[in-house]
Target: Potassium channel domain-containing protein
Amino acid sequence: MTVGRAVLTSSLIVGLYYVVPVEPGVTGLQLVVRLAVTLCVGVLITWLIARQVVAYLSRSTAASLSRLFTVTTAGVVTLALTDYVVAVSYPGQFVGLATRTDALYFAVATLLTVGFGDVHADGQLARAVVIVQMIFNVGVLTGAGSILGHAVSDRISARHHATR
Model:
């Protein structure tokens, strides 16, 4: 997977995020099914990220880095969608989270730990979701981001030394 393909795939993932149907008032079996699907997607993304980290560490290739970038994007988008579903399904759980862009903004702000307080978890369910999100961010996405950062730094350093 090339860098261009990774960017295109990540862009499509974000685009898909904006069109996934979400409606308020989902309860019962439909809610249980949606939660189960969300959990399965989260586990799948965690596994894919771990797999790409192992692939990168064993054979540092541009393809493994591109895949790592793509699955990291999918992880952030899944967290944003979870936040949005909670906000739509249970009004009052989040303050300032009314749109998908608000949810994506909140997921990225939480990942980067630069929360500004304009969007925040107010209800117990939202706080529980954000706790899981923070653990996922620290345990999975931060490790992936660190590897991506080191890989970029290593490539820049290698190019610099090659031109000398």
Notes: The chain has one domain: 3-11+25-162. The chain has five helices and two strands.
